Amino acid sequence: MAPTSRERAILDLIVHELRTPLSVAAGSLAQVLAGALSDAQQSAADRVDRSVKHLSALADQLRGWSRASHAAARTPVNLEAAFARALDSADARRRDIDFGSPDVPADVRIMSGNDLFIPALASIVAAVVRSAPNRSTVGIDVTADTTEVRIAVGDLSDAQESEFTAEFVGGLGFVLPLARAAIESDGGRIWSNTADGRISGIGLAMPRG
Length: 209
Fold this sequence. Notes:
209 residues; alpha+beta
């Protein structure tokens, strides 16, 4: 559901408070990375850089959710562009994880009333990648009928469409709860396949444009 005006004000304040130290950290880190570093220092700086970027992405998602509204006019989202962003995962490259090429027909669009679907899809892909073994393949499947588009990321063979057990898996913070909220605010559904705290697959269905 969309946030109330009070919830929106609180989220905006949280984002503002996050943005200030993140901007300072990003600027300082850029100066460090511009210098000559040992291998160990470079590795540590790269880890910090990834963490700062991750926090910035979370702040952006919070800000977007604070502005979400059921009353917003829904517009088509290009799935090819959405997947291009979602699959650009530094963690996937670092761990040599490949993706099964999603076959997205050119005329298939989903409808969204906010700017959160693409970040939500990126969060879903990243969550499945996080649990995937090194040097493995994460399959992605896209199907559509006249009313909805269904996207499967990873293995959903044992998943029930009524269950989203991945929402509070440790180490993911509030990425997936926000993704779920974004998808459901657009009239979509989300479900998952998890075992022993590992996410093997996440599926979603969205209204077709």
